[in-house]
Design goal:
- Helix 1 runs antiparallel to helix 4, helix 2 runs antiparallel to helix 3 and helix 9 runs antiparallel to helix 10.
- The longest helix is centred in the first third of the chain and has 30 residues.
- About 15% of the residues have low confidence.
- The chain is about 55% helix and about 15% strand.
- With about 400 residues, it is α+β, with helices and mostly antiparallel strands.
- It has three domains: about 110 residues, no CATH class; about 160 residues, Serine Threonine Protein Phosphatase 5, Tetratricopeptide repeat, CATH 1.25.40.10; about 120 residues, Immunoglobulin-like.
């Protein structure tokens, strides 16, 4: 309603500027026109007499131009007056504009605008909580819920509704909304994790069961998903599997921006979880402390032409992948551009998943990527270098030059 009031006010202001000159147009009266033409003729007659007296015109020339002047004046005085027509035309144009401006504005808005922008979204609700009362927000969410009843196939709408209910801490309703989005969109990690999180909150923040299933399914699709790693570590900790929980949170810490509040908070929780691991161990089986049988030596450098496009603090990920199938890194290590050039060894101890290790594959692909954002997921602006295939048992040094942009 506020939108339409403002739109109407703006139209009235526009009309107030355009219409008054048309309405107030002064009619040109017939008597005024005749008097003006007679005055012009008198002035011209005076000029002709002066020219005759000065000898500039002969008597014959004077008489000829006098006749022409009289004929011109006669024509001017016989012209039908246009004053009333002009006045009528001005008022007609005013009425036309008074109707046309609002109609054209509405047509353009329908054609070029987005009426849905008038309705509140979850992001709008989250962005302006201080300016809205809880009753206002509830009414907006209620309207969105009504909208979804008549539009059950709108996956984006269900996602927005789920986020809105989560903001209102109505977790069962949020879970139901995310369930609909998941039904429509399928196995999309972000939706799966939103659904899992809402389910957990609806169940006293417990991730056991369906929430954990969704979390680990999402991690299988996106192993470096920050939210997935957080929820996965929490799920393992709640299940009493501190060792696996520590692994997930250690990986999470490596992906978070160094020194960020999120990293510090996770480190504090990790320290607490590590103390719960068997014997306070750093969450690795005893045999892992032995020198691994598999170690791929990788030497990484940056092409000279790309030196100016990176910063010393940019993150460098060095990792191995299977040649086909899952893109989950079989081993990964994190460094910084300031460390380049460098030489590292990729081993089974750097695996992200117990079932996905270097020793389980005869050949792998080696990659080195500079991430401007510090995110393990490739992004625009990242730089990368790769060796398409190496034998995991090859003991020679594998040289990777980071020399191209991620597309």
């Amino acid at each position: 309603m506020l939108f339409w009031l403002l739109a109407g006010l703006m139209i009235l202001i526009a009309l107030a500027l355009v219409l008054p000159p048309l309405w107030r147009q002064r009619p040109v009266l017939a008597d005024d026109m005749d008097e003006r033409n007679i005055a012009i003729a008198r002035n011209r007659l005076t000029e002709l007499k002066d020219q005759l007296q000065s000898g500039a015109l002969s008597q014959t020339q004077y008489e000829e131009q006098l006749v022409e002047l009289e004929l011109a004046l006669s024509d001017d005085l016989d012209i039908p007056n246009q004053g009333n027509a002009a006045q009528t035309q001005g008022r007609w144009m005013a009425y036309l504009l008074a109707i046309a401006i609002p109609v054209l504005a509405a047509m353009l808005y329908v054609g070029l605008g987005d009426y849905k922008a008038i309705e509140p979204s979850a992001d709008m609700l989250a962005a302006t909580p201080a300016t809205l009362s809880i009753d206002d927000i509830n009414k907006m969410v209620g309207k969105l819920a009504e909208h979804m009843k008549s539009n059950p196939g709108d996956a984006q709408g269900w996602t927005m509704l789920g986020k809105s209910y989560k903001y209102l801490q109505q977790y069962p309703k949020a879970a139901d909304a995310f369930a609909e989005a998941y039904r429509l969109l399928g196995d999309k990690p972000d939706i799966m994790l939103l659904y899992a999180d809402a389910l957990a909150f609806a169940n006293n923040e417990q991730l056991a069961g369906k929430p954990a299933e969704l979390v680990f399914k999402a991690l299988a699709l996106e192993p470096d998903n920050i939210t997935g790693l957080w929820l996965g570590g929490m799920a393992k900790a709640q299940a009493g599997d501190a060792v696996e929980g520590v692994k997930l949170w250690r990986k999470l810490i490596a992906l978070l921006p160094p020194g960020s509040p999120a990293q510090k908070e996770t480190q504090a929780l990790l320290a607490k979880l590590e103390s719960q691991a068997p014997g306070g161990m750093p969450a690795e089986p005893a045999q892992a402390a032995k020198t691994p049988d598999i170690a791929i030596v990788v030497q990484v450098s940056l092409a000279p032409g790309l030196q100016a496009s990176v910063s010393p603090g940019d993150t460098v990920f060095i990792y191995a992948q299977a040649l086909s199938g899952s893109r989950v890194p079989l081993a990964i290590i994190r460094k910084q551009v300031s460390d380049l050039p460098l030489t590292v060894s990729l081993t089974d101890t750097m695996a992200m998943m117990p079932t996905m290790k270097l020793s389980g594959f005869p050949q792998v692909k080696l990659l080195a990527r500079i991430s401007k954002s510090g995110n393990a997921m490739p992004g625009k602006g990242d730089l990368i270098g790769a060796i398409e295939q190496v034998d995991v048992k090859d003991k020679s040094v594998n040289n990777i030059v980071i020399n191209s942009h991620v597309k």
